[in-house]
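All the exercises in this workshop are built on plain-text protein records. A record pairs a protein's sequence with a compact description of its fold. Backbone structure tokens are a discrete shorthand for how the chain folds in space. Once this layout is familiar, the rest of the handout is easier to follow. As an example, a complete record with its sequence and its structure tokens follows.
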Amino acid sequence: MSNGNIGALVRAWALGLLALGIWFACLWGSEPRPPATVSAASKEFSVENAERVLARVLGPEEPHPVSSAENAAVRQRILKEFAALGIPARTYQAFTCNELDLRKFGALPCATVTDIIADVVPGEGKAIVMLAHYDSVPAGPGASDDESGVASILETARALKAAHGKSLHPVMAVITDGEEAGLLGAKAFLQNVTLKSRVGAVVNVEARGTRGASLLFQTSPGDGGLIDLYARSVPAYATSSLFAVIYKFLPNDTDLTLFIADGFLAYNFAFSENVRYYHSPLDLRRNLGRATLQMQGNNLLGVVSGLEQTDFASLKGGNDVYMSVLQMWLPRMPVTWALPLAILAFVTIALAGWLTRKPDVRRRAAVATALVPLALLAGCAALGFVFAFVAQLLSDMPDPTYAYPLAMRIALGLGVWGMTLLVSRMVNIHGAVTSAWLWMAGLAILAAATLPGLSPYFLFPSLVAAVLLLVAAFMPRKWDGAVGQIALLLAALAALLAWFPLVVSGETIMGLKLHPLFTISAAFGLMTLVPLIAARPRARMNWFSCEVFLLGAALAACVCAGLLPAYSATSPQRINLQYLENGTKPARWIAATAWKATGTTTIPASLMKVGRFKFEENAYGALGLGSAYSVAAGKTRYPLPTATVERNLMTGNMRVVTIRFRGSADTDALFFRIPQDAKLAAIGLRDQHLTVPRQTAGGLLVNCASRDCRDLVVTLTLGSRSRIDLPFAEVRYAFPEAGAFLKAARPASAMPSQSGDLITLADTLHLPAR
């Protein structure tokens, strides 16, 4: 092998190691910093204090869904913590329904909730609200989601009182109930005109995991001033205008959603790493990261302290586009600058390309070169789908990388690097530079015009590159010389530092199941390294051997990923067991997985063997809750709930029906489904009266999630005179002793989640035609 080929090979692999180093730097930059020791009486946030508060509030670490006995016990412990701080606190109870999900999901959650309201710092005018919720899902104790938020508020309240600073605004703590049941505590608070009128700005602290950085993932519209205040108020940055864009497309909401909808200034903080413990029995104090809790507290205390000294009116303005870099920098600019600067970057890069042009380049070659970045993106995405398909085929599981992602991470990393080396042989240095950076700047223009929150990932590297490439274009050897190569390297570093954090955060939040976020984000960064590789062309055999090694090793890692167990005791599969009695079907045992799948291997073999389950597309009958594994459960064991029609009359063209539902004394929640052909126009539950928009294909599912729903009177205004079948059910957060054999058969690599193991007792009310 000649010295030139050795040099080309060394350069290519050195650049590969550089990219790997940037990935590790971004991984380090995505983690919260270890907390420093802070005295218990400090004006700063003390994680030691917060951990002790969390332990006292959680007590036995039991699930505490809305209106449960443990929910009331947690509430009393929180009130005791406020009293110990000398902060006056009270409760506010109301029955409410949240119509937010009517259009999106055809669902209406309702419950009686009890919020906690505390006056932390006195003052005049509109208040700063520190917001969190104290209820948990029925399956888990909620140490992270969201008792960590409660502990953060209590420790922040202590620090604010210790500071004794003068505040322009009062500070309130609002700790809501029923968030997990449908944002019901926040809805009840905002329905109270007196309480709502006190609010000026809101800072919410949430969790969707147990570790990781505290992310500022959402703000109220017109966030330029809010981001500036955040930048000068917190010690480490973890945010991006892209987060808010992604969040809009997700089905998730938090309490803050309702406050933003009502026009309040708002910040939303959450951590989301280790999502496998989210809404599960493993959401325990021992799994909550200390550094995570510290960063969450730093963000809450920092922003609230900043708001205390700020006129709210000064925070209202235009939106910014922004992205944090390694938690150390927060480059940002007004969104109105994004499109002009993107165009300027594109023109500048095009000018630099024209100044360095090669006169002998043919048009066909130029067109082919221009498509190389697109080929890299498509090739990397395709490899991800191929590897995922192979791993799924071998494991027979929807996400074979859930418990052991390292092998697939290696496969994807080797695959995208192999694809980068492959396309680098198709171009010369000039063509590689102009095509890569014109694509980057062109996409910055497109993003700025259509999806501004995404634009920093294209725009900021393009602005750096535009300056560097233009300067290098005036050097004697242009991009081929030492100055030009350094310029290309610095521009590539800017792109890698922009895109590789998405590779890291995409995996920590969504796992490798969403592999395009890994492969495509990596490809956007790596396409800027292609010019540096192309600057020293490799011999054909050199290139071919590298490709065989990389793609072969990637495929081998992919096979390993498929052969490893999909789940483990530390990354369990989510499987809820249910006992279902339905007035129209025999009693059933049900095993419901978190995946929509039809293969019998999607539940553990031990559970399948003991239960002899079979997959059913409509396992719940008229309740319409979807597919699951089920088997006959023998004789019925419980009385079914009842529904009585108290009124059924016509008022003009509409039919008004009043129904009383009654469940047993053990009822934890009651739900019913109104079919679409009933043509529901309005619904009344206690003091809640809602006009209903056109429903989804499945009709409207009403879930009354508090224990007092065992005796519920509902008034329906219907447009149909035909007979209507209205299924309803009583839910108990328990499991029959007769099903103990199923719980014993559920292995350590599986666990309940969300609503957990249930007893569901269902029947159908037949409304006669009018």
User: Anything to note?
Assistant: The CA atoms of residues 617 and 627 lie 4 Å apart.
